[in-house]
């Protein structure tokens, strides 16, 4: 059966307006879960227990699973394992180095060939005569890390994307452990790897546990790597990078179909999904939630920079609504 029925999606509140010339042109519904340090739901807009596919917001949890299985990576490569990178040169060099360290190459990657995620990098890539390749796809760091894990443990390399592979079973177990709930469903992600469903409350709880973990644990190592190398987790022009760089102690990861997850150093967690998958509303809604929670950040200007254009010029913006006063 579907994870979310049409009625459940329709019941999510409107949390963002698209305003053009002072007129609300469109609206985005979203669900948000905020968890307390003890893991309970502190606040919620929409149903915090409705399972969703967190997509790439699962990556830090998957990186924890790989460390638990026996992988050992330097911090910069561990950050790439958590990344949906922009395919800037330093991202691609890092993925190549991660593969070379275990005697592998780009040809061993099984993720979907793609062009760079970042628009400027994509234009430069195409202008240089390149075509879609696994290396350029934004999940190549995670796939390189999955291959490195298989090499370290002695698992089969060719079948690492199979949901029954020991690596994927370890990931399912780790996601369930960190989220405090079982994986609700498994499907195929855009990169070809299994994607596992959790509730927004579970995702928020997991990110809080990563953000507050002891430094010598797998969770703590992942948090430290992401904080030390936010540019590797996203990219030079990415809001997730700006968020981690501008908010002390935070661990954050964006995901496809407009998912965002944040772990705060005080033990609170936040996870959200914009129902229609519109990425333009995602950072704006997140910024409003973080402001409501009293989080100080230098990144709000970047997160809230969502202009609506007319003839190439700003004529409006995407704005958050219904969050400042708390859930209805």
From TrEMBL:
This is Asparaginase. Pfam families: Asparaginase_II. It comes from Phycicoccus avicenniae. The lineage of its organism: Bacteria, Bacillati, Actinomycetota, Actinomycetes, Micrococcales. InterPro entries: Asparaginase_II. It comes from the Bacteria.
């Amino acid at each position: 059966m579907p994870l979310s029925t049409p009625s459940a999606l329709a019941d999510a509140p409107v949390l963002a307006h698209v305003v053009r010339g002072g007129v609300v042109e469109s609206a985005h519904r979203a669900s948000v879960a905020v968890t307390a340090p003890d893991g309970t739901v502190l606040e919620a807009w929409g149903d915090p227990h409705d399972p969703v596919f967190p997509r790439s917001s699962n990556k830090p949890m998957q990186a924890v699973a790989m460390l638990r299985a026996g992988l050992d990576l330097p911090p910069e490569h561990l950050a790439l394992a958590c990344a949906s990178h922009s395919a800037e040169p330093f991202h691609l060099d890092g993925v190549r180095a991660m593969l070379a360290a275990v005697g592998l190459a780009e040809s061993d990657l099984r993720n979907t060939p793609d062009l760079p995620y970042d628009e400027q990098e994509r234009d430069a890539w195409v202008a240089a005569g390149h075509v879609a390749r696994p290396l350029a796809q934004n999940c190549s760091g995670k796939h390189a890390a999955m291959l490195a894990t298989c090499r370290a443990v002695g698992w089969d390399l060719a079948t690492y994307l199979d949901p029954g592979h020991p690596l994927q079973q370890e990931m399912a177990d780790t996601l369930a452990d960190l989220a405090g709930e079982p994986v609700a469903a498994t499907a195929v992600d855009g990169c070809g790897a299994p994607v596992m469903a959790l509730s927004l409350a579970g995702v928020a709880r997991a990110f809080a546990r990563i953000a507050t973990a002891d430094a010598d644990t797998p969770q703590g190592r992942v948090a430290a790597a992401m904080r030390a190398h936010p540019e590797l987790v996203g990219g030079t022009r990415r809001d997730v990078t700006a968020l981690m760089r501008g908010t002390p102690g935070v661990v954050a990861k964006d995901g496809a179909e407009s998912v965002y997850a944040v772990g705060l150093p005080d033990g609170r967690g936040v996870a959200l999904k914009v129902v229609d998958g519109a990425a333009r509303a995602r950072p704006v809604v997140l910024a409003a939630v973080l402001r409501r929670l009293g989080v100080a950040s230098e990144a709000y200007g970047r997160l809230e920079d969502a202009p609506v254009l007319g003839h190439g010029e700003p004529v409006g913006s995407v704005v958050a609504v219904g969050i400042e006063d708390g859930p209805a």
